[in-house]
Design a protein that fits this description.
Layout (H helix, E strand, L loop, with lengths): L11 E6 L4 E10 L4 H13 L5 E12 L1 H15 L4 E5 L3 H9 L8 E2 L2 H6 L4
Parallel strand pairs: 2-3, 3-4, 4-5
Antiparallel strand pairs: 1-2
Helix pairs in contact: 1-2
């Protein structure tokens, strides 16, 4: 479609350990019903890993953030909370912040402006 929004933007997910007890998941592309299973698969081992106390999801390069993404992040948060872990999101674009705001989840899924701030956030 010339001049329109590109479709089928591939989802890329990178995972790396940060400091003791922290892991970073970097997501690029569209998180929608067609790609959300990949995000869920990337987060599952981290939420089950007892050594991961803080999971940071960098969504600053996400070009579409659908309801399915919110559901997966809520599930990841619940799994982490059950073992006293925390989930923090990194986002600065409306594409991610607006849907979270509309469903009143910014307090539940805290958003930081950058990775450093997310790593330093000590709120529950």
């Amino acid at each position: 479609m010339a001049g329109g929004r590109p479709y089928d933007v591939p989802l890329s997910i990178g995972v790396r350990p940060m400091r003791d007890g922290a892991a970073l998941v970097t997501v690029t592309g569209e998180i929608d019903i067609a790609t959300v299973a990949s995000l869920k698969a990337a987060l599952a081992p981290l939420t089950a890993d007892q050594s991961v106390r803080l999971l940071v999801c960098d969504l600053s390069e996400v070009s579409f953030f659908g309801a399915a993404a919110i559901s997966v992040l809520l599930d990841a948060r619940a799994a982490l909370i059950r073992r006293d872990g925390r989930l923090r999101l990194v986002a600065t674009e409306r594409m991610v912040i607006r849907p979270l705001s509309l469903v009143h989840l910014l307090d539940v899924l805290p958003v930081s402006p950058d990775i450093r701030a997310a790593l330093l956030d000590q709120s529950p």
